[in-house]
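*** Backbone structure tokens ***
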Amino acid sequence: MPPVFPMLTVLSMFYYMCLRRRARTATRGEMNSRRAIESNTRALPINVEIVQYAKEVLDFSSHYGSENSMSYTMWNLAGIPNVYPSSGDFTQTAVFRTYGTWWDRCPSARLPFKRTPPTFCSQDYVELAFEEPVYPTAVHILETYHPGAVVRILACSANPYSQNPPAEVRWEILWSEAPTKVNGPQARQFTPFIKQINFPTNLIRLEVNSSLLDYYTELDAVVLHGVKERPVLSLKTAMIDMNDIDEDEDDEKYGCGMDTLNKQFSIVTLREWPTNGYFDKLPYELIQLILSHLTVPDLCRLAQTCKLLYQHCCDPLQYIHLSLQPYWARINDTSLEYLQSRCTLIQWLNLSWTGNRGTISVSGFSRFLKVCGSELVRLELSCGHFLNETCLEVITEMCPNLQELNLSSCDKIPPQAFNHIAKVGGLKRLILYRTKVEQTALLSILNFCSELQHLSLGSCVMIEDYDLIASMMGAKCKKLRSLDLWRCKNITESGIAELASGCQLLEELDLGWCPTLQSSTGCFTNLARKLPNLQKLFLTANRSVCDTDIEELAANCTHLRQLDILGTRMVSPASLRKLLESCKDLSLLDVSFCSQIDNRVVLELNANFPNVFIKKSFTQ
């Protein structure tokens, strides 16, 4: 009979490795939902759990509502629930600006950046502050309409209420998952399994992706559960995942971030090899093509293998298009400094969401652009709260070839700073959504940037006279193809007439929540007759839209693909049938809260026009 002792030794070693791995992951807080450990663990010592709602909304990327009200705004996430457990469309909830893939299928859609890691799919975010810093044990998200948009939950080491700024700001992912399709729009409490972290937090960030949703997701409140003392996991476990033994975890692969990359950028000592194997036989261009499919962290890791691949990985041709948004939590001045020598030929740069809480300084950003800005064509800076007037001045001086500039939700830029943008005469796309741009600066931009094709002025509340702005567009911006005037408060039929007469190439126009426009003035029929190329038209919440307007669209705008007439009381089923019969390319029709269009009519239209997504929202 063979001895059993060798087998016992192997099992003992295996058990030891499991316990060692378990203790290490518990210490570092490296557990996540993809390798969830099904156990009956408990926190030692036992702490009293603190339950708290968000005290304050600190930051967010977009919202459906107005800057001057509470309806449909992110600010509704502060405090106790307003709606839950009810389901439906309620103004007291937090709603992001977009949903579905409609915004990717309109004339203003931007080309995506390549090399985006598959683990990053976030489109919007909101950051919430809580009263007490705790070690999180659970996060409950109360979703009241079309749930399923949340894809990441993060915790920050910085205390927003502390008088002393931290020396280092750390973000840890508590939970992450790809977008999922949830059956039904009903309310739910979403409580994903979160990993433990080794610092207390009172700053939680939700990131969302609404691409799979049939309508806007609505969030009511966020509840943070946690303890004041750091939990220590018991070693009493029921089952340990075999993947815990693998040293090369996904967290370690993708969690290297820019802190590790900063070190990798600076590595100069590389192993000497007598030959490079088959790589010596490959053309330089073919190796470059192969490496072009790697993410930035992968490039940095590969650069450490040998001098040949280091040369390829540092070639500026690998950094023609560079998106640092997926690594927003770890980008800082040091990262930009290390990237400078590699980005001398860069044309597309995405720094959206980066640099907040002091991680990127004005001087660090300026130094980078002075070295790397000469070839820039596209610059994405959405939610860049470090930006100030000096930054805009540097952009206009160092980026003479700039054609696209995104300053969406950069609400910390002072109004006078926007005057500098007028110096970039070659601009074709300018996004100023939720900024403090003023009328004088905008008039100057429109006067000198006559090449503009795409312009977003949604929720720009400091513009006093939109009729004057529209008149200047009609006179100077003849090439305009898309225009976002979402929640513009004072444009009238006069401004619309000037716009329609001068910008006849318009294919996309958003006039949602513009209360001063009245159908009785003929402004919408004028639009339909003057703009035959319209593919997207949003007249959201304009209760005066009537059958005459719809019939004019059917007669003149046969290329129409997306139409939003939410909230009108004057449109009948008969005019919608004419529109659907005439506009063969129509794919989105929002008739939510249209009093004459009940569910029976929607079902009938859906049956007769199956290629059109007809949305009818509801409130219970």
